[in-house]
Amino acid sequence: MTSGFVLTNYWLLIVWVAIMGVISLIIPYRRPERIMGRVAYRWPVLMALVAIVPLIVWAGTRTDGFGDTGVYRNTFLNAPDKISQWLEYASNMEKDRGYYAVMVWIKSLIGNNDIVYFSILAAVQLICVFLVYRYLSEDFLLSLFFFVASTDYLSWCWNGTRQMLAASCIFACAMLMIKRRIIPVIILILVFSLFHQSALLMIPAVLIAQGKAWNRRTIFYMILIVLAVIFLGQFTSFLDTAVSGTQYADITSDEIWVNDDGTNPIRALVYSVPAILSLVGKRYVDEADDPVINFSVNMSIMAAGIYFVSVFTSGVYIGRLPIYMSLFSYISLPWLLRHMFTRESRWLVYALAVVLYLLFFYYQMHVTWRLM
Question: Number of structural domains, the chain?
Answer without folding.
Answer: 2
